[in-house]
Amino acid sequence: MMGILIATGDPFSTLCSFQHNNWKGTNMSKWMQEWSTEAVGPHNLKIEERRLPEIGDLDVLVRTTAVSLNYRDKLMLESGMGLDLTFPFVPASDMSGVVEAVGKGVTRFRPGDRVISTFAPGWLDGLRPGNGRTPAYATLGGVHPGVLSEYVAFPEDWFVAAPTSLDAAEASTLPCAGLTAWFALIEKGHLKPGDRVVVQGTGGVALFGLQIAKAVGAEVIVTSSSREKLEKALALGAAHGINRLSEDWVERVYALTGDHGADHILEIAGGAALGQSLKAVAPDGRISVIGVLEGFEVSGPVAPLLLKSPVLQGISVGHRRALEDLVGAVDRIGLKPVIDKRYKFTEAREALAHLDRGPFGKVVIEF
Q1: Are residues 34 and 6 in contact, defined by beta-carbon separation less than 8 angstroms?
Q2: For a pLDDT cut of 70, what percent of the chain falls above it?
Q3: pLDDT of residue 231
Q4: What is the CATH number of the domain that holds 127?
Q5: 107-143 pLDDT, tens per residue?
Q6: Around 241, how many Cα atoms within 13 Å sit in the side-chain half-sphere?
Q7: Which of 82, 109, 188, 348 is deepest in the core (most CB within 10 A)?
Q8: Which domain holds residue 37?
């Protein structure tokens, strides 16, 4: 990549020779490039050249190989999403990379290991940190620095081993989109064979949901406003596709399930659309509220909530242990993330703009 200064000789051997504390203090002549902004706003993002970060005793230095974008990354750049961001602000939370150096206290990784980031550092397992007044939302590319950088230096607990069966771009899609679908359907949803699952849309989370549910043996119904995308979803394994522009999707779900309704709905739209999901869900079914495409305020009728007693649960990605479970499942079942388009590092603005076009699957920046 243009503009990078590295030591002479074989780069990997040189970098590995600076393991442990020897790395600290040697980076004064080493530079990297990253995308950052000095203020919230859609047009402030630019490439900057900065010194490589130093690592502490429990940190790892990772060379980034791919970054997967989420619509949240675009919202963060445009509005800050109400968070107290630190500037210069580096966006994005989902990456894959290769460990280049480790602190002397690191035990989980060594140079050369392939890793992926965790979306919510510090949430290792169990209940999410935070309380009723201030629920936690300390994520990469938000409260914590982002990953749209040639190198990152984070605590070792902020990474997990990458799947062996995926390339760098594919692996980078797991930390947010993949884990969100897994957490909703498996970790919290306890999905089982024969369940009827409605997946709204054909974005990253939706297609992970389709593939995971299909692997479990569930019957998957996909809704979309695009006939072309529905055809692709059917080819990916969906049992049924509903065009929500030309059909009443709730009535169609009733027809496809013999009036049983959906055992599980991945609610991507949010807003007033939640009311439709409450109508479509089966008695004692589950609605995982994931998206905010139709607004941050939700609404819906109370009657189906009272009469059908569904579980209505918000999903904000998941913890590290569940991500490790997902990685293991990906390698076992051969799941291949769907990537709509791969961009170069210098094309980050174009990649972010692509998110507004409703990609079929994920948008990834390769390094």
Answers
A1: no
A2: 91
A3: 98
A4: 3.90.180.10
A5: 999 999 999 999 999 999 999 999 999 888 899 999 9
A6: 21
A7: 348
A8: 11-175+338-366
Is the domain of 44 the same as that of 170?
Answer: yes
* 21 has pLDDT over 80: no
Do residues 86 and 124 both lie within one domain?
A: yes
Sole residue written with tokens 């495409």: 293
Nearest to 65 by CA among 112, 7, 14: 112
Q: Is the peptide bond before 11 cis (omega within 30 degrees of 0)?
A: no
Average pLDDT over residues 221-244: 98
Q: Is 276 in contact with 264 (CB distance < 8 Å)?
A: no
| Alpha-carbon span 146 to 169, nearest angstrom | 17
Angle between helices 204-216 and 320-333 (to 10 degrees): 60
Q: Are residues 171 and 195 in the same domain?
A: no
**Is residue 321 in some structural domain?**
no
| Nearest CA among 353, 362, 292 for reference residue 77 | 353
Residue 110: C-alpha distances to residues 52, 123, 151, 165, 307 (Å): 19, 22, 16, 20, 54
